[in-house]
């Protein structure tokens, strides 16, 4: 199901990239879309009262009509995707055979959930249960639901319909291709039509995430760890059809973590993220606590924690600048009075 808020708050540029056929539709509505970096919400807010009466009197109504148009066009073109709007976990058993301490955990598309717990606590098993769409037939006896229903067997049996895309800490490329050719090969395997645009967008987004930019003709085996992760995150967000993404310890990736999450969520994925980083944990909508093989608690991120997140980002930005200065041989300086004030405030 396409969510109204998703359509309202994604840039027109990204909307057209995802649904190329809507560009002519928006033009026929006389919508001012010269600046495609704006969202529909921003465009609506800038319309005069006269323009609203003629073009978009009610934003929600306009978006609902657009969603209906997208669905009709996808059915006509035969490009309807298997979308997942929610993933639900039902309790199983921990390593001692005791029932997990929750009734139900539901994660909606566009949500970020962090998974925290000691090494060996069962994070990988949770991922495996989700990937296998467990129905009480795994060591934890957990059950999963997709969109509130017992999952279709296609998620287990079809090689073309992977439910989960995983981004691990370590990755090695065994093919010696250029970045452009590598992404193109992936796109061709998925029968992508506007391949040149998609390849260019993935490389552009990856360079936005990476600490150091790389050209499209760079050999993929020459990329640094951070560049490789940035490329795979952009590829997963834009090209992968898997509706659920698991990221393992993105804090060690050497990339812009916030942009990476924004990119994944912007593509309406369900993102589960194993992490020990408090910034990433608080950027999530909720966090799942695992211990002794079982889920012991789920915690919604509170408003107070969101305020703490702002303070942690100030510290993190300062540390980032220190790392950059070290990298380029610069002298490190003590906190200025404005830095201290920012930390205190």
UniProtKB/TrEMBL annotation:
Keyword hit for Cell membrane: no
This protein's name: ATP-binding cassette domain-containing protein
Family classification: Belongs to the ABC transporter superfamily.
Species this protein is from: Halonatronomonas betaini
Chain ranges of the ABC transporter domain: 82-318
Record lineage: Bacteria, Bacillati, Bacillota, Clostridia, Halanaerobiales
Gene Ontology terms for molecular function: ATP binding; ATP hydrolysis activity
Keywords: ATP-binding, Nucleotide-binding, Transport
Superkingdom to which the source organism belongs: Bacteria
Pfam families: ABC_tran
């Amino acid at each position: 199901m396409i969510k109204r808020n998703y359509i309202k708050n994604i840039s027109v540029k990204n909307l057209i990239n995802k649904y190329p056929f809507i560009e002519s539709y928006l033009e026929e509505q006389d919508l001012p879309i010269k600046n495609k970096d704006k969202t529909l919400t921003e465009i609506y807010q800038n319309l005069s009262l006269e323009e609203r009466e003629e073009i978009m009197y009610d934003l929600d109504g306009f978006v609902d009509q657009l969603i209906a148009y997208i669905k009709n066009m996808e059915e006509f073109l035969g490009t309807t995707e298997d979308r997942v709007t929610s993933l639900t976990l039902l309790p199983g058993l921990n390593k001692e055979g005791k029932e997990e301490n929750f009734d139900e955990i539901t994660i909606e598309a566009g949500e970020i959930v962090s998974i925290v717990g000691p090494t060996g606590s069962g994070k990988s098993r949770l991922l495996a249960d989700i990937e296998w769409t467990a129905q009480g037939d795994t060591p934890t006896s957990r059950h999963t639901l997709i969109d509130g229903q017992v999952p279709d067997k296609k998620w287990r049996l079809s090689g073309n319909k992977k439910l989960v895309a995983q981004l691990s800490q370590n990755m090695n490329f065994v093919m010696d291709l250029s970045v452009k050719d590598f992404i193109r090969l992936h796109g061709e395997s998925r029968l992508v039509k506007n391949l040149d645009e998609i390849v260019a967008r993935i490389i552009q987004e990856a360079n936005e995430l990476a600490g150091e930019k790389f050209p499209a003709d760079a050999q993929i085996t020459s990329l640094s760890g951070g560049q490789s992760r940035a490329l795979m995150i952009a590829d997963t967000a834009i090209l992968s059809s898997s509706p659920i993404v698991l990221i393992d310890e993105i804090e060690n990736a050497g990339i812009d973590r916030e942009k990476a999450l924004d990119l994944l969520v912007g593509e309406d994925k369900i993102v589960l993220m194993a992490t020990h980083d408090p910034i990433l944990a608080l950027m999530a909508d909720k966090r799942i606590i695992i211990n002794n093989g079982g889920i012991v608690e789920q915690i919604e991120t509170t408003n107070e924690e969101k305020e703490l997140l702002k303070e942690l980002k100030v510290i993190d930005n300062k540390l980032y600048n220190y790392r950059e200065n070290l990298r380029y041989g610069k002298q490190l300086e003590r906190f200025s009075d404005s830095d201290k004030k920012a930390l205190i405030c």
